[in-house]
Write a structure and sequence with these properties.
With 126 residues, the chain is mainly β. It is built from no helices and eleven strands.
């Protein structure tokens, strides 16, 4: 059974950077498409990025495109989300999620993902 644990969240000033980590255990993460999602208070969960099994294709939501970078290392069972040029509107709980499939493309539709971490809080404020 796949388990996901996020870390790396915290308080950062606008314009700053954070790197979120998603550690997978139980099975090899190579068999899973991985997505990052976030949910701010009072808002719906938003898909912000995803990465296929091989790491060769990624997708980003319009709100983070050009600022966030997703990556993975299957040998280490790890996925990361590098977040740069952070804005107050990036404040949310961030989740990584996994979809058991081998895909050449990925989706940011949360309904496709069956495994979720517990989330890590990111707060962007001066």
């Amino acid at each position: 059974q796949l388990q996901l644990v996020e870390s790396g969240g915290g308080l950062v000033q606008p314009g700053g950077s954070l790197r979120l980590s998603c550690a997978a255990s139980g099975v090899t993460v190579a068999d899973y498409v991985i997505g990052w999602f976030r949910q701010a208070p009072g808002k719906e969960r938003e898909g912000i990025s995803c990465i296929v099994n091989s790491g060769k294709r990624t997708e980003y939501g319009d709100s983070v495109k050009g600022r966030f970078t997703i990556s993975r290392d299957n040998a280490k069972n790890m996925v990361w989300l590098q977040m740069d040029s952070l804005k107050p509107e990036d404040t949310a709980v961030y989740y990584c999620a996994a979809h058991h499939a081998w895909e050449v493309s990925c989706t940011m539709d949360s309904r496709a993902y069956g495994y979720w971490g517990q989330g890590t809080q990111v707060t962007v404020s001066s």
